[in-house]
Design brief:
It contains 2 helices and 16 strands. It is mostly beta strands.
Amino acid sequence: MASLTLTPLSHSPTSLSSNTSTQRVTKKLSFQSPTRRRLLVNGKEYRSRRRSLVLRRSAVDDVPVLDPPPPPPPDSSESDKTEFIASLKLKLLNAVSGLNRGLAANTDDLQKADAAAKELEAVGGPVDLSVGLDRLQGKWRLLYSSAFSSRTLGGSRPGPPTGRLLPITLGQVFQRIDILSKDFDNIAELELGVPWPLPPVEVTATLAHKFELIGSSNIKIIFEKTTVKTTGNLSQLPPLELPRFPDALRPPSDTRSGEFEVTYLDNDTRITRGDRAELRVFVIT
């Protein structure tokens, strides 16, 4: 039984109890007065100056999450807008957390992540990399890819499936971008199963690309090579560069090259949408 107590600082307390279950429970608590109020959830105190709060209890981890407040009016201060953007980013991170970078996402998860990303994209406005390309610089960690819901490591493109047929476990995924050299590397940490009693083999696969800016927010990447490096107990082995197909034997479209649009970008968060309707969410490392 979860107990919630709403207490105006200058008034007597009013209590409300709700019965949690395995389903998502949403309670909307509206205040008619802008008086600062105190919210107690299972002994933990939260304060708010806003007139309404929506308290949502996750059915997965039973952790209370505060939905973002309504958008600030156009004449609001810069701090109010910054706070609103931060709340939308938190909502997006909450939508994609626990999905194993998208490999565990179902249809409902895909819709929630897409809706949360669109809210942040709308508030952030158009991205212009022609005057702010340096904001791409660095190593970005992938939090979520909608294409991974296909249960393949290639996402929306051909790639090895995950599961029992091939004992491949996907670890962290990164993008390393250097705006001076135009290097654009997709880096994936993998664990390869081997026959018992040998331990799994840990490797890092790096798909090296060059990139170019198209227009104001579109990025085109051109594949160059794939390098595999063992880590863990076999880290002393030299890296292995996988051979490329001769030009005459390559398919008409190189599936390891592509184009995507940067739809949201700030100092620590980046959202992209690919040429195959793939939504990706990154944070800087």
